[in-house]
Amino acid sequence: MTDKPAPTPKPPAKSRAKAEPASTFQPGRVAAAVLILLAIGAVAWVAVSLTRFFMLVFAAIVLGAIFNAITSWLCARTGMKRPFALALSVAGIVALFVGVFALFGSQLAREIDTIRAQIPAALAGVEAFLNRYGLGERVRELAEVGSDDISRIVQQAGGYALAAGSGIADFVLVLVAAIFLAGDPATYRRGLVLLVPAKAEETAELALDDAARGLKGWMVGQGVSSLVVAALTWAGLAALGVPAAGGLGLIAGLLDIIPMIGPIIAGVPAVLLAFTVSPMTALWTILLFLAIQQLQGNFLQPMIQKQAVDVPPAVLLFAVVAAGILFGFLGVLLAAPLTVVVYVMVQRVYVKTLLGKDIKVAGRD
After folding, report:
1. 330-336, Cβ contacts within 8 angstroms, sequence gap of 24 or more
2. Mind listing the pLDDT tens digit for each residue in 316-327?
């Protein structure tokens, strides 16, 4: 009897199902991708819409850091309890501003009125000076070519000035928030650290320490720099006989907070008013601003960087431009401290932690 070959076993139904090609269309993954894209777009839209809010928050942080530094100094020097020291620091700063405006407000207002009244005569003097050397027609042609851009800049500057003048509510909000932040900074610090993964907490703590030191050093150095620039500008313009020297000195000191661009902006009205005296006075005014700029760039700015962090000048310049485009007038004012904070954060988190390279810690030699 011949043996029959055993029948080939059929593969199980599960194996056959695996051999079949899977469907290329998966609705679940497509829906998840669409939801992720929509969420990213929504977050980006909210971030863009709240840019002014974020800048106000950062302004409150900067002012809170000032209050905290003064409060800590008072507590260390006098043994005063923190709530009383904070109240004294806030009252002292408010009284300082009120006293300055009470003592010098009317005088500065008169000088600013003088600046505004004499600008047309100054422009006429510049035009007469250029015509004397045959350059007036060429300058007028260049002015006509760039008239649209100049008008746009003036309109933007007017908008910035209007926004700055109507920001009383924002100032009150920032002041109150800064008092809360300075009242208990450890609570807000712990809250920020809790938002990062546990393995990154040490890096977050170090980054916050670096940012605090850099911001404190920048504030001290910038305060000294602004006072020196204001005093030298005031004294130099008064010695040259330029009208409204006090107001121009105040403008120079306030604009010193804007890196690179601030001194140039401050020098324009001073040179124009100097033309009302004589072209030679205008020339000496230009030389005065160049000398002060050299002092600021070679002595005062390195002092600020030594106390805070050595931010390259080109980075500061581009940061001012970018902050003005993104955040307007408030961004320009806060460009320097914002750049310091971002710079030290990038150094600590990216360069030191992720790349493993040595860095220069903010506020330390």
Report:
1. 330/52, 330/55, 330/56, 330/59, 330/163, 331/55, 332/160, 332/258, 333/257, 333/258, 334/55, 334/58, 334/59, 334/62, 335/258, 335/259, 336/218, 336/222, 336/257, 336/258, 336/259
2. 778 888 888 888
